[in-house]
Amino acid sequence: MARDRVLVTGASGFIAKHVVLELLRAGFDVRGSVRGSLRADEVLRVVRDVGEDAGRCEFAEADLGSEAGWDAATRDCRFVLHTASPFPLIQPRRADDIVSIARRGTEFVLRAAARSSAERAIVTSSVAAVFYGHPRDRVRPFGEADVTNLASAAVSSYARSKTVAELHAWDVARETGLAISTINPGLVLGPLLDSRLGTSAQIVATIMKGWLPLLPDVSIPSVDVRDVARAHVRALDVPESRRFLLAAPETPSLPEIADILARAFPERCGRISRRRLPSALLRAGALLSPGLAMLAEDVGRAKEIDTAPARELLNLRFIPVREAVVALGESLLRHRCV
User: What's the pTM value of the predicted model, to 2 decimals?
Assistant: First the structure.
């Protein structure tokens, strides 16, 4: 039925492709927003490769940088899943370069969803909108009430973009009456569906290629992309508006992730460095680089995330990080990305 159609924005993205498959398995028809026909073909190849019905997918061209196309994209969609967002591997000097497009794009999508009388929208945010810029001596877990402190100099362009975009999403929802929830995952690992790498996959690929001789001793809460996709679809059935923070219980550091990869893929053991970057050197670099400033905030500590809402309301049982890392490594090899 037309009202069982779901719009997935940025449908060719790493998370989005998994979301598309999860929606199809749940019985929904999918409309994906893309920036061109080549991206639509990418998604269709993935759908066919896993044996799902590509005939239940359609596409609409729309871009976060323009209001054009979003009314057509959201028309006759029961739900909207807004996964599209800029996530550069190298942080730009001008934070406004990605903050503006993330904020404006979110507004375009949600206002169009409200005009189309969508029942609910799910916005893909991040733990980057939750736990940066807070005191280092904090011991209690970060939860859905916490928001990244935008006044802090340690907040990267990416974290700022996710925070500003999410805060604006809640403002638009209140103004329009659109029901929304957000999904706030940690570092997203797990299997690639094709050779297009998201930023998190690029980090692991760089480690597997041996391009990082020294690794910063930082621990980032992480989650498998399959759990992220399940969370998006299951959140559609939760009537209340919530922020769902997603992270597996264990939080290995980047050197520990490298060790997992070296043990799982012994033929690459000689390439994979597990040497730690001296923390003093990282902190010195943080004075010059916004990206290093974000990493420096996490040196020597692992932030704890309260995932009770996701476990209790979405019935998520998180895939272990070790399994997610190995699955990502296997898919990088399978798709000849390393």
Answer: 0.93
